[in-house]
Design a protein that fits this description.
The chain is mainly alpha-helical. About 80% of the residues lie in helices and about 0% in strands. The chain is built from eight helices and no strands. The protein is globular.
Length: about 200
């Protein structure tokens, strides 16, 4: 029970102190889940983000489901999800009830004016951090650049870009993948083997 309370509070705190949604939440999630609680490793966290971004729904909710299920199964996924969505749910109830009366207030406008640059900074920080941990080389960096240009300039839906790159990743033989991708996959495999050995010893 203590673990579930701890998980709920962690994701509740993430939901409370994160503004902007999406990748603005990544730095806080990483700090709590990877750095402080050690629930996921760096490689696992990158995989979780890839899965969360590829599936429908907010990235924070999808990530909380992944983390909760990996650590404590179905109940963990439910607890993590509730922790993430409760702050937003409460805030939206309050806003729906009172925002129409205060939206033109100078203080409210000033607050949102100050929040916008912070959201941009959070997104930029997450991009920089993820790029460093993903061990991008010229090949994978080029793919990221082409994907960004396709969404930004050509106006291709991000869903099609993600789907196309996922299919391409399946079609490229392992022997021809960039060294950084192989190293990351090797690290994940080694971590999985260590966890399996630890589980066997625990049994």
């Amino acid at each position: 029970m203590k673990f579930y309370i701890d998980m709920f509070l962690v994701f509740f705190r993430i939901g409370v102190f994160t503004l902007g949604g999406g990748y603005a939440m990544v730095p806080l999630i990483e700090r709590e889940v990877v750095d402080r609680k050690k629930w996921l490793g760096d490689a696992e966290f990158l995989d979780a983000l890839a899965i969360a971004q590829s599936l429908p729904g907010p990235i924070a909710v999808n990530t909380s489901v992944f983390v909760g299920y990996k650590t404590r199964g179905f109940i963990g996924a439910v607890v993590g999800t509730f922790g993430t969505v409760m702050p937003s749910f409460i805030c939206m109830l309050v806003i729906a009830a009172f925002f129409s009366h205060i939206r033109s207030h100078p203080t409210v406008e000033a607050v949102f004016t100050g929040i916008r640059p912070a959201v941009v900074a959070l997104i930029a920080a997450s991009v920089w951090t993820l790029g460093a941990k993903a061990k991008l080389n010229w090949f994978s960096g080029g793919i990221a650049l082409v994907a960004a240009l396709a969404v930004w300039q050509v106006r291709i839906s991000p869903a099609w870009v993600v789907a196309a790159l996922a299919i391409a990743g399946c079609l490229v033989p392992v022997s021809r993948r960039p060294a950084s991708v192989k190293e990351t996959r090797r690290e994940v495999d080694e971590e999985t083997e260590l966890e399996s050995e630890a589980d066997k010893k625990g049994l």
